[in-house]
Amino acid sequence: MEQRKYKIVNGHIITPYRIIRNGTLITEGGRILAVSDHDVEMPDATIIDAGGQYVSPGFVDLHVHGGGGHDFMDGTVEAFLAVANKHREFGTTSIVPTTLSSDKASLLKAIEVYEAAHKHNTAGARFAGLHLEGPYVAMNQRGAQDPKYIRNPDAAEYMEVLASSNVVTRWSAAPELPGALPFGRYLRSKGILAAAAHTDAIYEEMLEAYENGYTHITHMYSAMSGVTRRNAFRYAGVIEAAYLIDEMTVEIIADGVHLPAPLLKLVYKIKGPGKTALITDAMRAAGMGPGESILGGLDNGIPVIVEDGVAKLPDRSSFAGSVATADQLVRTMVDLAEVPLVEAVRMATATPAAIAGIAGRKGALVEGKDADIIFFDEQIRVSKVFIEGETGI
Question: Which residues are noted in the entry as Zn(2+)-binding (predicted)?
Answer without folding.
Answer: 133, 198, 219
